[in-house]
Amino acid sequence: MTTPTIFPPGSDAEPRGPDSSGGAGPAASPPPSEPTLALPVAGTPPATFSSAPPPSPPSQPTHRRRWWFVALAAGLAVVLALVGWMVWRNWVPSAPGAPTSQTITATSVQLSWSPSTSGPSVDQYLIQRNGTQVGSVDAGVTSFVDNTVTPDTSYRYVVIGASGGKRSAPSAEVVVRTLPATPADLTVSLSGATSLTIGWSPAQSIAPEQYVISRDGAEVGSVPGAQTSYVDVGLTPATAYGYVVVAVSGAGRSEPSAELFAETLPAPPTGLRASSVTPDAVTLQWSAPTAGPPSDGYAVVRDGTEIRTVPASTLSYTDRRLTPATTYAYTVLTIKAGVRSDPPAALKVKTRTPPVSSAHLAGSWPVNGKVTKVSGGVTLGGSAAKGQTFEWTWDFASKCTVGPCPAVVSGVFASHPFTVTVSPSNGTYKGSTKVHVSHCEGLSGTVDVKNTIRLNLTVTKAALESNIWSVTSWKGTLTVASPYTAAGSSGNLRSYCPASTVTTSVTATK
Which residue intervals are annotated with compositional bias (Low complexity) in the record (predicted)? Predict the structure, then answer.
């Protein structure tokens, strides 16, 4: 048997009756002063009494509002996640600081910059030149050296921070101009007592605007960039100098060239003159240089060939064994530490023309002869008559190579050869010999006569032949003397030839 339960009035568990529409409607609450009585049922625990009302079931509008808030929270979470993703996606390193050029040469540029300060960590820095990447460095490095540049050229650099695949904005741009190429291969192309000419190799890339030349640390001049030499004047003789050359374009100056050390030549002596001139010698005199340190000595040069050196204390020299009537060019050079001065203007000296009497007689000569006098009866293989002419060739074998000296003459007279030695004296050569030339006709027939031949030759002209003062013309006489000659007898008859002479003038010219 079921025991009915009595609910307290106003309890949510109180059964509700149907409303006017046929549904369950709210039940009328008992008077509040009446307690709820639960009657016990046999076999069941006794009922309990409570003054707290039981929970009410949720109403329909409250449930819908809760689901709307859940949906709004979920949508907001999606939006926030999407925004976060987009923010993360566009979260890049901050741009590095503007690069600065620390060291610039003709072939390299060294850059440095401050690191990125915000955004994701940088993995590396990328270096761009004129819009093209030329290198990269790790995140901990904030400098870079570009060794692929050209001298005297402008470049634009920026630095970009990289984090994985993300790139920062480029840094501020820096414009750098490399230095002009350093001049190289300095040489001395010409040196003098008071000047030096310096040369160098031209630039292999872009020619600079100018070259600046420094001597011993001080600038002394400049030349346009198309010129690669410089003449430094007003220097001291026999003095060493150090030169460097710098290429300049605008405000850019190249590194100095390697230093070139060059020395000026000694100053030449002054007042060169010929104090004595003979046919075969010249005596020179000069004065010591007036500038530069004292000399170590002097070199005498004749016709471009150095012929003698003398110490510094000697200011003269005699040049011997010269050719007569010949012009020579002399210079004297100063010697300092083995270096010779530039030759001054040459002094031209002509040796004296010697007298013809000092000429050398030698060689083969064409000789013309003419009988000028006949005394007595002479038969020269025929009659000898005044005015008779001859043409011979005589040879003179000199017993020396230069100057006058004895000579052996081999000649012919009236078809008879002869040899006679002639000796010189003041331009005249004389000599005699005995040789058969004429005949004596008598009772015993023809008798050969032993004649005496005398030569008397005088030099009339002389000139240089193969640099030897030589006889070029002579004249004289050839005398053939015949002694008294017996030509046989018959009884009281005797035949003879009286003494006689034939004088012939002779001349010869080469």
Answer: 35-51
